[in-house]
Amino acid sequence: LLFSLFREKKRTKVVELTENMVVDGGSGVSFEWGGRWSHIKKFLERPGPFTHPDFEPGTEGLQFLLETCKILVIGAGGLGCELLKDLALTGFRNINVVDMDTIDVSNLNRQFLFRPKDVGRPKAEVAADFINSRVPGCCVVPYPFYCVDCINLSRLFLRLEFHIIVCGLDSIVARRWMNGMLLSLLVYEDGVLDPGSIIPLIDGGTEGFKGNARVILPGMTACIDCTLELYPPQINFPMCTIASMPRLPEHCIEYVRILQWPKELPFGDGVVLDGDDPEHIQWVFQRSLERAAEFSITGVTYRLTQGVVKRIIPAVASTNAVIAAACATEVFKLATSAYIPLSNYMVFNDVDGLYTYTFEAERKENCSACRQVPQDLHFQQSSKLQEVLDFLTENASLQMKSPAITATVEGKNKTLYLQSVPSIEQRTRANLSKTLKELGLTDGQELAVADSTTPQTVMFRLCFTS
Amino acid sequence: TMAATKASKEQKYDRQLRLWGDHGQETLENAHVCLINATATGTEILKNLVLPGIGAFTIVDGHTVSGEDAGNNFFLSNNSIGRNRAQAATELLQELNGDVSGNFVEESPDKLLDNDPEFFHRFTIVIGVQLPESTCLRLGSVLWNASVPFLICKTYGLIGYMRLVVQEHTVIESHPDNALEDLRLDQPFEEFKNHTNSYDLDSMDKKDHSHTPWIIIVAKYLEKWLSEHNDQLPKNYKEKEAFRQTIREGIIKTDGGVPEDEENFEEAIKNVNTALNLTKIPSSIENLFNSEQCNSITSQSSPFWVMLRAVKEFVHDEGKGSLPVRGTIPDMIADSQKFINLQNVYREKAMQDAAAVSKHVECLLRSVGKPPESISEKDIKLFCKNASFLRVVRCRSLAEEYSVDSVNKDEIASYMDNPDSEMVFYLMLRAVDRFYQQHSRYPGVYNYQVEEDINKLKVCVNSLLQEYSLSVNIKDDYIHEFCRYGAAEPHTVSAFLGGSAAQEAIKIISHQFVPFNNTFIYNAMSQTSATFQL
User: Fold this and answer.
1) pTM for the full predicted model
2) Active-site residues of A: which are they?
3) Distance CA A234, CA A227 (A)
4) Which of chain A's termini has less CB crowding within 10 Å, N or C?
């Protein structure tokens, strides 16, 4: 089944190259040499006992990788750099990479395509340049910060027809968005999913010495939202602790960040705390020491201050290397049908020895992202809209950030609450303390919810309980 | 300037310093790593050591760069085809990090073993990649006798293999993922008892009552329970539930009898189960106490064993059967003052215990003619704090693994009860080594060889099993697959191993986190792995 996804796309050979591509300019220098692909060829030209049922040994497989297969890599950071290298050395040549970040000194311990002289430059560009010059014939096209936003990303998808997407993101919100994007591209005919519209998503994540790699076939296997409970929401310290009962050095730092900075505005009106500005961190550090001294709390350091303010996650080269490698292996399997792909989730941890655990994550029956059916919301008629809002943000399976709720009331489309546009927020704020009955909502009616965690509106069905 | 370099290194290494600290980083910067064979696997391992800033590396490789090499290796360009591989790889690896000093030796390891085996004694760790069996065994013997850790890595088709060979590796900072707290509620120390006595829950105002740390609450109610139950701690579920109920009843009620919202009491109830865990010396630590190294302290004993012996003596003396108090408590609902005061009670006790251990350390050092300052207070404190988490890894030598007399037949046979267990790949790698010994090449390298080598490889498999008297069954499919691999070294498998091996090397160098013991197999076909002790 998987191989047939590509049969159509394989027949269309991409001849023209996109505008930004680095061309191995007409100097006539060949970028092939004897034995170059010999390691790969053994898996593509020889039959074997463990290959995918769809696998056909021959020279077509390598040709497809070199000439036709189009991969989109999301993120050019810790995982992204590794992915680009792994894919390039596995024969993939048409690679697009997206990243809106610029290079920082603290990236250099693992994002090996960057050097001290590159600090400040867009990651996608520098990464692409490096790979293209180190791996002759490889054509990585960058989409750096000034190109990337949701609309442009959507256009990119429609224009370029990727075979496989690989994510090396550092945010769950971005992952969910990507997940939603691929789901929105699915085509259903008479309720049956057209396999040709499925774009596989390989997703990798790391944190310190832990990581995971997963294979997602949107519409067919568990999606990011199906397993949202695997990412428990980040716990923030309670405000009363921060405001009046600090016990840990972290509480002192949060006090300065959340309460003291907005009050004192030490670097001027409207100047927001910038975790990347050492002067800002220094200020927070000093004030945190003062706060800690008040309560006889020890342990406030500059490093801790920076870690708390920027929500820093520790990172090393080795974990990123492992996870990206596993992901790249899966991209290779999917692109060539050389082997049956991972089904579908692997976790890795090398704190104590090396530990991996591989399992098949299941699709959720009522997944708000990948199931076609609106999810039921159970509330009383007398429940306030605020309760619905709280549910959408706090529920472990939804974890929305700032949902905008609209409904069709008396034939007209009505925005019940929207936080992100100040004028609308003001206008609709009063609705939060109104009951669902007061808002004119009826049993069984559909609510449309938009949120940054998904490019598509999520439909819910209101079910009144007694 | 020195200060500027230090500051920029702090920035560059910030994300990893949060994992192993400045002292861990220092061990890396003082390390000299030897890599044998700059194949893709080798350079990927080294990349992940150069980036975090090891002091120096030396690549030993007598091969010249081939077209195949340049095809799967990020650190060998096609321009370097024909040049010595050690030199070519050193250039591009060195370029990754200016803090690191890169060296190369254009020589095969076998030649070095012939002419100058002591060459290898200078290294903090030797990493051997894609080495034939004979070289591994020779080198293994030299390094074992010189107590230099040896990490063997191999990528073979879609299989990754690692073998760690280290006689004795001690770990003070193992950084366990889910450590139990050391609260001593079942055997409260004097200062803790005095502290809980300073609380009178019944006479407190509501604010204080609701902000009393749960540890105090459990201690108070436990005291009452013990006096009413003949000094017996709650043992089974029924008793623990009854105990929880006594705490529940302690929650302040409104005039109407409705319990108020007291989060600290809820915390107490939730934590009863773990709080009632008996304070015990972990069996792993008892085993260390009983070991030879702990009981015979000499002037050659490492600080680890001296401190361990000191802790053992502490346990039998001031510790009254328990390890030194760790001194940390988890965060909990409480007002600042109550929490800090309670925390200080534990901290001071920990300092006291560490001081007592220190005295034992001094005594021991004097008894073997070493100055008492040769182990610092700081190190002793760190040791005491980690007393429950100490680990010692001892790997069997290669000679033991390979000898017919000491091969771990049980381990191999029991895993092979499942013929698709990762153990089959270990056996296939051994068989393939055998093939190489006999035919001076690996099976199936050229297309025309694949078919005919299957039978030849099967002969090697059978002779291997026979030699070790292993009555296990290896499916023909695996023999076919290993011929099909043709000793290929695909980049993604090399990269997976590159990350894995580098982190194990970092564990060895830094003595933080726990290395594997002693054989690791990665199967990229199924994305599974296993660790065996062979």
Assistant:
1) 0.93
2) 240
3) 16
4) C
